[in-house]
Amino acid sequence: MHIFINELSLDNQFLAMDDFKTSLREVYTILDAINAMNIEKHIFHSELLWCQSVMNGELFSQVFNKLPDKSLQTAFNNILKNKLNSKPWTATRVHQSTDSYKCRKVNVTDTGIAEVAERSYRDGRRKCLLINFSHSRFSSKKFRVLKEGAFRKFVDATSTCDDFGLWTINNGLATPRYDTTSVNPPRDYHSVLSDPIRFAKTNKPPVQGRAVYEELLTGKFYYVDNMHSGQSAHLEIYDSNSKHVGEATLDGRLIPGTTKNRTLNG
Known about the structure:
The protein is an alpha+beta fold. It has two domains: 2-170, no CATH class; 188-255, no CATH class. The protein is built from five helices and 16 strands. The protein has helices at residues 17-35, 60-65, 70-83, 112-122, 161-170; strands at 2-5, 42-45, 53-55, 58-59, 87-88, 101-103, 106-107, 128-131, 142-147, 151-158, 199-201, 213-215, 221-224, 235-238, 244-248, 254-255. The strands form three sheets. The protein has an eight-stranded mixed β-sheet. Strands 11-12-13-14-15-16 form a six-stranded antiparallel β-sheet, with no helix packed on it. It has a two-stranded antiparallel sheet with strand order 3-4. A hairpin with a 3-residue loop joins β9 and β10. The longest helix is centred in the first third of the chain and has 19 residues, at 17-35. The model has no long low-confidence stretch (mean pLDDT 93).
């Protein structure tokens, strides 16, 4: 598994420090999930990452150092440099500067996007993924890269941890298991909600910031309770009339005696 942090997904798109912090935290969460996977993985970044414009013309390194949350600063550096040992992709580059690569009408030669496209093209069995910061022109799950005179290649990408989890499932990789000692609530992919045959994400307003899923066979609604973590992590279930049914384990087993007198979004 080859994972690249897409430096071009930083393009002066953030309006406030809180927006940048939210996006950085999501990238950290993806990296933390990758670190928990017990498979061979290689993490790459561009040395230009720290020089990309983030907010009001300021560079990533400048805004990063101004973060009021120093714990996020430390955690991001630790996961990237120490735990995952991320390396500049240029040290083992495959694509050539003399070739022309374009994506969404942008010249992406000498970037991580071109490198992912070339590696994926040369070895179709290799699982490659771009991690994007949110709110950029590349914040989608897949986009096409054109190598002039050679090929068109779709590359996979993610800007959320839940989408990353679904990518691991769809590609037959080991899905990260939820750590029951974690102080963070589980992601959707840690639960039965990641089963596309049984569940579908709805357009209902998020609850506690979490997506609401419908169980296709029963019409019941499920979401991950974002207020509980570790041993107390669970799902909330509502019937087709949005009345509370009870709590369930992450694998979908109803926990007896957990029904409450409330409604979905009520």
